[in-house]
Amino acid sequence: MRVSRLWWAAAGVSLVVAVLLGVALGPASLRLGAILADVLQTVSPAGGEALGDTQHAILWQLRIPRVVLAGLVGAMLAIAGASYQGVFRNPLADPYLLGVAAGAGLGATIVIVFGRLDGVSLLLPAAAFFGALGAVVLTYLLGFSVSGTSTTATLIVAGVAIAAFFTAIQTFIQQRNAEALRQIYTWILGRLGTSGWDEVLLVLPYVVVSSTVLLIYGRSLDVMSVGDAEARVLGIRVSRVRLVVVIFATLGTAAAVAVTGLVAFVGIIVPHTIRLLVGSAYRSLLPLSLLFGASFLIVADLLARTLVAPAELPIGVITAFVGAPFFAVVLRTSRGSIG
Amino acid sequence: MSRFPTCLVLGLALVATACGGATSEDATDAVGEEVTTTTAAPASATAGPATTTTVAIAGAEFPAIATGDNGAVEILARPEAVVSLSPTATEILFAIDAGDQVIAADSLSDYPAEAPTTSLSAFEPNVEAIAELGPDLVVLSFDPGDVVASFDALGIPTLVQSAALSIADTYEQMLQLGVATGNRDAAAATIKQMQADIDEVVATLPATDEPIRYYHELDDTYYSVASTTFIGEIYSLLGMISIADGAADLNFGYPQLSAEFILEADPDVILLADTMCCGQDATTVSERPGWSNLTAIADGSIVELEDDVASRWGPRIVDLLAEVAAILVATSEAG
């Protein structure tokens, strides 16, 4: 089924508009004209300052990296969610399925509680990243130990078990160190607020590599959607594809989660919404998820920092508040199937 | 599990002892001289002198009726085995000369150094573990739901003093602890001394046309305080106003600000209350992307507070005030 060109155009336009809005609006009042002049100047230097020093710093050190980070993370979570849904043939799959969230949460909790004196900012992303990866590795080991090959059901259940275990440890540590609760909770709700270019550079390679690999496997996911046995007959090495997709989706998700915390809903709502509007062909679903996921999170982050300005809302709250009703509306009004 | 029978026996012994004496249910029958204490109505302190509290002391000290969040508490005799589950209460008790009556303090009570810190938890008090120590007064800042009721059943008086919302609250809590431990005079004297110290510190400040705008950082994700909070009131005494005031309404006084806003607001003073929890100091703050442009960093008007001093509402608020005032004086002298 071919996706109409309109949808591609819409995806591109939404991303551009989201970026423009994200850069132009925010708690600090920067005039759009001055912003444009400043951007042009940075690209091709000319005389005079379009924005004052502080405002220039706000634009280039805070706002633009934040918009870029939101785009990268949103894109990664959406494409990872779509891939997981394809590879597990499960509409409830999201990037945190195999214990990524629990593992990252545990890593972050350990660092926040025990690594306090050493300056949390360096250790935290690494701990979250390796926690996430560790959880998925354990899930796979557990799944393999049950049956020789990995079936979807076994993996999902193993993922639930590992997630429950890690969450239990995290809860225990939180309980014993109640004074760190606010920090841990803030991290879990997801936050793009403390970003500079460092975090963008940290995430960028993972997102680029993961997305590229996942896009390549789009066709295989389409074939796998008819079932494992049928896919094997058609020449797809199902276990191998599943393993590769899970590895790269997890790598990208772990990197995203490591810098921004657990941003919920993006990975499940964006692919579903696109599926309802456009259709379930993964060949096109994956790239569209990439683009719309980026736009969605950029706009969500914009709302998070402007709705109650100068205070901020955690981005997880926005994605849930905005995403869930929107998804309900799309579900009711469309004639597509979730499949 | 062999400790369990011991706990049971101790618990029963305590209950038996408590039942032998007057329990809180007999409060209405207790004979004792009524203690009248008068407290001047607290005025909200904004860049002015501190509130005054007057205490009238009459008659015998015990039985005493102290007032906490859990209502009126009757204490029949001078407590000699006080257990404090609140770091602030521990500080207050030692400041009002009740330190030798304290037998145990919770794990977070690290000041003063001679406080008998134990592994008791302030957030999750284990009633049995506390009862095992044989207290005759338990002071809490937070009751998870069953602690006061459990101690009532055991006949041990408890006093709940939650976080102060104003400096007047602090003075009131000090007074009540003085009443409860039989150190009313010492409590009144400490309060007077604190008021005098605060007035002295405020007097050293240079006159300013505009209020000094500050950003008080609670952690490295930019949680801040508004002027309506307890610590905001302390800063108001120094003529300071928080940049977070516009964001206070939805956030009960503790909004999470965005970095953009802080940069644009360009506070005159930055106060870091996350030096211990999150490893922040003047250097790490100036290294944040875009922060080096701030006036406060260029002037060196960054105050590194100890997390504990900034989050407790006990006698050390005077130290906090003095530390911040010193920075303000130094900054204004520098130009």
Q: N-to-C terminal Cα separation of chain A, in Å?
A: 15 Å
How many H/I helical runs of chain A? Answer: 14
Q: Given the helix and strand composition of chain B, which structural class is it? A: alpha/beta
How many E strands of chain A?
Answer: 0
Architecture overview:
Chain A has 14 helices and no strands. With 339 residues, chain A is an all-alpha fold. In chain A, α4 runs antiparallel to α7. Chain B is α/β, with parallel strands linked by helices. Chain B has two domains: 143 residues, 3-Layer(aba) Sandwich (Rossmann fold), CATH 3.40.50; 165 residues, Nitrogenase molybdenum iron protein domain (Rossmann fold), CATH 3.40.50.1980. Helices cover 37% and strands 12% of the residues of chain B. Chain B has a four-stranded parallel beta sheet with strand order 4-3-5-6, with helices on both faces. In chain B, α7 links the parallel β7 and β8. The radius of gyration of chain B is 22 Å and the shape is elongated. The interface between A and B is large, with 40 and 36 residues.
Properties at a glance:
heterodimer, A: 14 helices, B: 335 residues, alpha/beta, Rossmann fold, four-stranded parallel sheet, 37% helix
Topology record:
The complex is a heterodimer of chains A (339) and B (335).
Chain A: H1 5-24, H2 32-43, H3 53-88, H4 100-114, H5 120-146, H6 152-176, H7 181-189, H8 197-216, H9 218-224, H10 228-233, H11 238-260, H12 266-278, H13 282-306, H14 315-333
Chain B: H1 3-20, E1 64-68, E2 71-75, E3 82-84, H2 87-95, E4 102-105, H3 127-132, E5 137-140, H4 147-154, E6 158-160, H5 167-181, H6 184-203, E7 212-217, H7 230-237, E8 240-242, H8 259-265, E9 269-272, H9 282-286, H10 295-299, E10 302-304, H11 307-311, H12 317-334
Parallel strand pairs in B: 3-4, 3-5, 5-6, 7-8, 7-9, 9-10
Antiparallel strand pairs in B: 1-2
Helix pairs in contact in B: 5-6, 6-12
